[in-house]
Amino acid sequence: MIVRRAILIRLPKDKCDVDYIRRLMALTNLAYRDYEVLVTDIPRTIQNQLYDSFKNYMSSLVFGTEPKRWFARTWVPLKTLRIHQDGSMKGDKGAPVVLDFRNNVIRLRQVCKNEPRYVVELPMPEWVVERMKEDGDIKFAMIGLRDDEPYLALVAERVVEPYLPSNYVLVIDVNAWNNGITWGLIKDGFIIKWKPEVPNLREIDNLYNLSVRLSREYGRLKRMGLDKTEKGKRLWKKIKKLRKRSYAKLRDYVQKLAHRLVRKALKHKAIVIIDDMIEESRRELIEEKIPSGLRKLYLAYTRRFVRLLITQLEWYGIPYRLKRLPSTVCPMCQHELTQLPGRIMVCENCGFKAPRDKVPLYWALIKLTSSRPKGQISLESWRLN
Ligand SMILES: [Zn+2]
User: Fold this and answer.
1) Nearest-angstrom CA–CA distance, 286 and 93
2) What are the residues whose beta carbons fall under 8 Å from the beta carbon of 371, sequence distance 6 or more?
3) From CA 18, how far away is CA 16, in angstroms rounded?
4) Which helix (H) or strand (E) holds 252?
5) What spacing in Å lies between the alpha carbon of 384 and ligand 1's midpoint?
6) Residue 172 CA, ligand 1 centroid: distance in Å
7) Which tens digits make up the pLDDT trace of 248-271?
């Protein structure tokens, strides 16, 4: 199985011609639609990239590159040349992206500016070195704009076969961020460890609320036609900074958590069961009357977490399943559960009682044991909580 992971690297804006990249993206869009337009003022080598090898990249384009509408911006696929430490080379010698492991730099040739022999040099990211150590190879790269900022995307790929799981199961129950992620480790039919993971939401809420307050003030200035004044510009800058900080905090948290859980699965050679209940989480967020902007932010990062997790599980050949693990239905008798204060769930039919975040883990146990007759769970173990 070929698996892929990708990383985005921000390019130095002062060394990139954003308009040139925008044009390349427009040409890519056309190439995607089977139109060959050769423009006289853009180097042939770059244009050939688009038309000759474009189709080969199609299955490797990771970044939602499928243009949704005409002239939507499409990331530009680029070939790479890999120069290894011993001087051996792999890839196309004329490739616009050179990964030079001897000097630990990435060189971009003529894709940042339309000038003969124009080169931008970037330090080699640690991420690339790590993927190479894991037998990955970087055959593809892409260049493009996101929010008008130039980026380089590197796509690592590797051939991997999923391992045979041990007697460990790692269950990951995904809620929206306000209730976090709960993971549980099951061994031979018993939950041996479980933990809800919640980011520091107060900090994120505060940043968000402040940005909303300032946005209102900015709106007032705008209505009075004062948004272009020194004060207005300063305010806008501050709002952008606050938003960026809250995104960065969530992003960082999501990455670290996904990484930690992947390590855990690898350590035990576990099979991973993911309950990805985005819809239920969305409803829960609405019920809890969380403002819609913040709701969107939480959901976006919940989705991001699941995507990241799955990409990494596949990369390391960790077997996983997506399964529905409800938290409001009794795993013993399937009766509706009642919620008590402190997020405790009880079944009025059979007496089952557990913290809400732990209910999905019991569901995982049931689903596992029903397909594997060994490791019966007695009612005793249900009532431990
Ligand atoms: Zn019950």
Assistant:
1) 54
2) none
3) 6
4) helix 230-268
5) 15
6) 23
7) 888 899 999 999 999 999 999 999
Structure tokens at 342: 């402190």
**Contact status, residue 184 vs residue 193, Cβ threshold 8 Å:** yes
Give the pLDDT confidence score for residue 259 in this predicted structure.
94
Model confidence, pTM? 0.81
Task: Name the strand (E) or helix (H) holding 50.
Answer: helix 44-52
pLDDT tens for each residue of 140-194: 888 999 888 999 988 888 999 999 999 999 999 987 666 778 999 999 888 999 9
Nearest to 113 by CA among 16, 48, 41: 16
pLDDT digits (tens, 9 = 90+) for 61-115: 444 444 444 445 678 888 899 999 999 999 988 889 999 999 999 999 989 998 8
Tell me how far the alpha carbon of residue 184 lies from the centroid of ligand 1, in angstroms: 21
Q: 353 C-alpha vs ligand 1 centroid, how far in Å? A: 9
* CA–centroid distance, residue 367 to ligand 1 (Å): 16
Tell me the per-residue pLDDT of 195-234, one tens digit each, with 9 for 90 and over: 988 888 888 889 988 998 999 999 999 898 888 889 899 9
Residue 342, Cβ neighbours under 10 Å: how many?
7
Distance CA 333, CA 364 (A): 14
CA distance 385 to 300: 33
3-class secondary-structure state, position 165: coil
